[in-house]
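Comment thread on ticket #2218

A.B. wrote:
> Attaching the input chain for the structure job we discussed in standup.
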Amino acid sequence: MQNTKLSLKQRILVGGTLFGMFFGAGNLIFPVHLGQMAGRNVLPAMIGFIITAVGIPILGVAAIGNTHSDGLQALADKVGKKYSYFFTCLLYLTIGPFFAIPRCATTSFTTGIAPITAGKVSETLALFIFSLIFFALVLLFSLRPGNITLWIGKIINPIFLIFLAILVISALVHPGAAVSLVEPDSSYQSGALFSAMVEGYGTMDAIAGLAFGIIVIDVIRQMGVKKDTDIAKEVIHSGLLTGLLMALIYVLTILMGTQSRGLFEISENGGIALAQISGHYLGSAGSMILAVTITFACLKTSIGLVTSCSEAFVRMFPNRLSYRTWAVIFTVFSFCVSNIGLSSIITYSIPVLMLIYPPAISLIILALCGKLFDHDRKIYICVTAFTWIAAIFDFIKTLPENIRAALYLDQAVVIARKILPFFDLNLGWLIPALIGLVIGIILRSAKKMKQA
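C.D. wrote:
> Ran it. Output below, let me know if you need it in another format.
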């Protein structure tokens, strides 16, 4: 039987699926750290963060549903076949072994283990041993997928959210400082909204939504909704429920981070901030419980990411490497990356995300508006090409200063600042994308005139 819409219960079920897909390590460490940096400019910072960490991910899933694509590769194929392989590989590697999977291990370590082992054993050695055990378990369950991820998802995540709620309520009821008295970090003195948008990139949810959106689409289709437009509407409806919950968690954790400035200085990363705040309000026992639940939640996420990435690469490159081989490669690589530490992972991930997000956002917008131009490939190609050119400058701008100087790229940033409007607001790709759109429309119109 074909339905045109889901019941409220079904929408809540889909919303739960979306929430489980999006909520991971980055959804905690980035808002807490953002709150510490934003200070009294926390309101515009909240808005910017929610735009990129909630709005764009939901639209990304809707884009796949709207185009009836069977995954990211099919969506990116609207630009070109070779591009679809390149972009799909890049996104899966980013949300997989390059950054997201290693970050799960280092977040667990920074939040739970580091405070306990501080001063007793070398942090490098402690991280090595912890990550070795962590990824041994990840590989074990990835090679033998069973009920473990389902069990953790149903038991650990609710426990984690309960303890997070206790922590947030304790912090908000007994604030370390009034928000109005907290001095913003230099990067948030002005333009807090746009600075926070970059922090939202750090959650990686928009590219995760593109990569895993087909899972949600399949759930909706199995419930009887078949028409593309109806599916897209249902994704939006269910996504609103997810988005409201995510936004609520973000608002509260950002406030918690801001108010913690009366107790602590701005931390090096959100994992440290979360450990400090939980230690202050919950004591050692509460911090230990929070650390254990975060570790298991991150373990579940890592198993899911290794499994998804391995399956994606088997589909893209059939008759090459087996699922088991891909799983071993991704797990071992993630283990190696995790040992550079959480702060380093975040530092090196930001330039890559600044490179990937603009073409990802433009692809989402084109997919959602594609019926207006019949999903013409020329428009996809022109918009994507111009967006990538501008995104390269964003990538260069956010490289660590020592790397940028060593590669003599400082002048490129100076040039980009002169020729790209909104470059300092991290929106330097916007005008080039619009130029690409205009050129694409002109080429499409010219082709139509020739055929007439």
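A.B. wrote:
> Thanks. Noting for the ticket: The radius of gyration is 22 Å.
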